[in-house]
Amino acid sequence: MPRVPVTQEFRVAEAATPTPVVRAPDSPDVVGAQLTGLGLATQNMAAVAQDFAAEDRQRMNRVRVEEELNHLREAGVELTIGRDTGYQNAVGRDVFSRPSGKPLADEYTERFDQGVKKFAGNLSNDWQKQTFMQHAMQLRQQFRQGALNHEATQSRHYQESVHTGAMALAVRDLALNPTAADRVAEAEERIRGNALALARLGGQSATEAESVIQKTLAAAHADAFEAVVAAGDMASAAQYLGAHGSKMNGAQVLAANKLLRAAMGAQQVAGIADRAVEHLAPRMVPSDFDRLWGVMEQAESGGRQVGPDGAPLTSPKGAVGVAQVMPSTGPEAAKLAGVEWDEERLRNDENYNRALGQAYMQSMLQRFGGDAAKAMAAYNAGPAAVMVAGKRAEREGVHWLSLLPQETQTYVQRNLAEFNAGGGAPRAPTLADVHREVLARLPADATDEQRGAAMTAAERRFRAFEDDVKSKRDFAVAEAMRELVKSGGDMEALPPLVRSRIPIEQLDSVMSFAKTLSTREDVTTNLALFQYLSNEKNLRGLSDDEFFALRSQLSQSDFESFATARGKPPADTGAGAFPATSVANVLQDRLAQIGINASPPATEKRARARVGAINQFVRQSILDAQATLGRKLTDAEVEQHIDQMFSRQTTISGWMGPRQEPAMGIDAGEIPAAVREGLVREFRAQGIDSPTDAQMLDAYWRSLR
To answer: How many domains does the chain fold into?
Structure first.
C-alpha cells in the first residue's frame, strides 16, 4: 500500500536559561606567552611547507631521470632489434666485416653512448645528471654484453657453417671417387680437420673430439660404400669395403657385409628404391638455389651440353657446355666443386660441367652475401667487374648494374624477374621417372622378380614423398592464410618464418587473398572447386590444412558452409547439416535428364564451372529451406525441392524460333536479353562492372523463385 511521506524534523528540547560564566581579564604575561606560541607555530608551518617543496622538487628530479632513462632504453631496443638499425640483424660474415671497420660490439656501444650523451643533455641539474649516468652505465654494460654475446654466437654459427660445408664437400668428393686412394685420403683429412674444428667449437675434450672424428669418418665411408653399391659395381664395392671397412663402426661393417653378400637381395632393392626417390626429391621440393640455377642454365645454354652439330656447345667467347663454364675458370670451379680439373670432361660430361658451374655460382653467392643479382652478374661478367662497378656506383651515386655491359644488365634483369616470379623450378618427376631411375641402378642381370620388387618399393616411397610434400605445402599456405585472417590481410604482419614457407607457386594466390581481406571484399568462388567439394567424399577426405588452403578460392559464405558440413557427422539432422549424398544423387539424375554431365573431367573447365554454379545455387537453396524448417530435409523432401527447382522453364531464342528449356540447364549466354540487361544494371549499382557467368546465372535463377 502506498505510504505518504512525512517530514522528520529535528527538535531541540527546551532547557533553562544558562548561567553566564564570568572570569577576570588575562594578565599581560599571559598575552605575551600566547603571542610567542603563535609565532613558533607560524615558523613550524613555514618549515613544513619548505619540506613539502623540497620533496616535490626531488620527486620531479626522479621523474625526469626516469623519463630520459626510458628514452635510452627505447634507443637500446632499437639498436638491438630494430629492422634497419638493430645489431641482431647482422648475421654471419656481416658481423665481422663491418662498414665502420670496427668490431660490432664497439660500433654499437659507441652508438649507445651517443644516446647516453644526448639524453643526459636533456637534464637540468647535477643531481639529475649524476643519477642518470649511474643507471645509464648499468644499461650500457647490459647492452654491450648483449652485443658481445651476439658476436660470439654468430662467430660460432659462421664457423660451424663453414666447417659443415667443407665436410659435406669432402664427403661428396669421397663418394664421387671411392676407388681413388689419393682422393679418399685427401677427403679423409678434410673431414678430420673440419670435424675437429667443430668439436672444439662445441667445447668438447680431445677424447670427445676424436670420437666425433671417428664417427664422422665412419659415416662418410659407409655413405661412400653405399654409393658404390647403388652404382651396381659390386667388385669396386668389395674393394672399398676391404680397404676402408676398418674405419667404419661394427654396426656399419655388419650392414655393409650383409648388403654386399645379399647383392640383389631385399635390402639392396629397398636401397635402390630409396636412392631413386632421393635423387628425384630436389625436383619435387626445389630450393631457391635450385630454381635460380634452373633459370640461369636455361639462359646460358637452354639446358644443352652440345649444339645442333653434336659438338660441345661453345659461346663466341669460349664458354663451354650446359653451364657455359670458361676453360680459364674451370680449375677454380673444379676446386670449389671438390673434383679434379678435367677439360675433356668439361666439354663432354654434362653432369661434370653442371657441377662446376653450380659450385662457381655458389661461391659467387657467398662472395656477394647472398645477393642473387650480383652473383648472377659475377657469373656473367666476372666478380672483378662487379666489384669495380659497385665501388664506382658508391662514388657516382648510380646503380651498380648500370655500370656493367648491356649484355650483363639484360642477363641479370631477365633472370631475376623470372626467378622472382617463381620460375626455374625443374619439371616435377613422374612415376615413369622413378621407374627409369630404378632401372638405371639395377644390374643388367637382375631378375624380373627383383625388378618388380624394386619398382613397387620405389613407387610406394615416391607416393609417400609426394603426400609429405603436399602436406607441408598445404600446411604452409593454411598457416599463412590463418595469420592473414587474424590481421585483416596485412602481409607485412606475417611472421618472417611463416612467409618464407609459402610455396613460390602459391605466393601470388596468398597475396591476392590478403588484398581481398584488406579491402574487405569477398572472394569469388572457384566454381570448378565448388563442384569438387560438393562431393561429400572429396570434402571429408581433405585434411584441415588442405581445406583451409582452399580459402582463397571460396567466398566467405561458401567456405563457412563447407566448413560446417565437414564438422557435422552424416547422421546429424540439424538445419545446418547438408544432405550431401541425397542432393548429389538427385542432382546427378536431374542433370542427366537435361543432357548435362554432373561430373565433367578436369580438362573441361567451362563445363565444371557451369555444374559448379548449379551446385552452388542448389546447395544454398537447400540450406535456406532447412533454415526455414529448422531441420535437415529428408531424402523425399530433397527430391521434391530439386524437382521444383528444375521445373521452372525459360524461353530461349534460337534460329528455329523461341523454345522452352529448363532454366537450370541454360548457360549465362542464354539468359533472355531484357533480363540480362536488367541484371547487369543491378550488378553495376552494387559496384560490380563485369559480373561472372556464375553471378549472372545465380541472379537469374533467384529471380525465378
So the answer is: 4
